């Protein structure tokens, strides 16, 4: 799909994306690159990074991959420093690395809970922590008039509750809190904008195949307001909006990109039935016999 943004909205910017070699992260890498940014991606698997980097380069995007695990502070530090060494500066950090699996709370070990907290919540903070000195206004390679920006990929699970995802709900709630708190502190002190995106079910991703086998996603479609899965492109366009100057006054928000899914619930009555029922109930409550025309009263 063609982008509605001009091809130079991120011209001259350098973006580092954790989890940027696959899934939603890779689509954001690609779209950022196609809109003028140089791309560094961080991930645990070398072959995934290599193939992502060659995919980006083949589209004319300056790209580099660094192997690292966001759970390790030394990896975070090394990758942020290597990015700045390679491209000369850092403007945008996207925290897209995440871990997930379905498990009932009673079958989840504390270590399983901690593992996802470590990747999603602590990992996000660690990357932000290591990137701060490069993102702040006046940081290496940037002027004293503007800071960089951060995007944290979250979810909507914790807005209500989610079956078999207590660990991810807790982790993403912490990510959203981190987004707001950093937006307050670093927005004020360093002119860094910190925002998030909460994707709904996005087709063709590891998340969907891991968390929503086909039978479940077909069922979910019946109650989804826009009646379809999202595309990775939808998330990448939201990311472009938030990371580019289009979003220059947006700070501390987590943009839900889910077609309204998190608001949805099964329809308990058909629309026609509700018309009749509600009129009948009203008349009954006013003591009017149901079914007697107005002219006869
Ligand atoms: N059900 C229950 N517990 C599970 C589990 C599952 N499907 N998968 C892992 N765990 C538990 C393990 O049993 C272990 O706990 P224990 O020591 O008490 O037994 C803990 O989680 C850590 O598992 P381990 O396999 O050692 O972690 P890892 O660091 O190798 O992998 C994961 C991290 C588990 C998050 C792995 O799924 C991953 O790497 N995911 C990244 C990709 C991804 O999830 N993408 C989807 C994004 S939505």
TrEMBL record:
GO biological-process terms attached to the record: fatty acid catabolic process; fatty acid metabolic process
Any one GO MF annotation of this record: oxidoreductase activity, acting on the CH-CH group of donors, NAD or NADP as acceptor
Known catalytic reactions: a (2E,4E)-dienoyl-CoA + NADPH + H(+) = a 4,5-saturated-(3E)-enoyl-CoA + NADP(+); a (2E,4Z)-dienoyl-CoA + NADPH + H(+) = a 4,5-saturated-(3E)-enoyl-CoA + NADP(+)
EC number(s) reported in the record: 1.3.1.124
Origin: domain of life: Eukaryota
InterPro entries for the chain: DECR2-like (IPR045017), NAD(P)-bd_dom_sf (IPR036291), SDR_fam (IPR002347)
Keywords from the UniProt entry: NADP, Oxidoreductase
Gene3D superfamilies assigned: NAD(P)-binding Rossmann-like Domain
N-terminal signal peptide: none
PANTHER family: PEROXISOMAL 2,4-DIENOYL-COA REDUCTASE (PTHR43296), PEROXISOMAL 2,4-DIENOYL-COA REDUCTASE [(3E)-ENOYL-COA-PRODUCING] (PTHR43296:SF2)
Name under which the protein is recorded: 2,4-dienoyl-CoA reductase [(3E)-enoyl-CoA-producing]
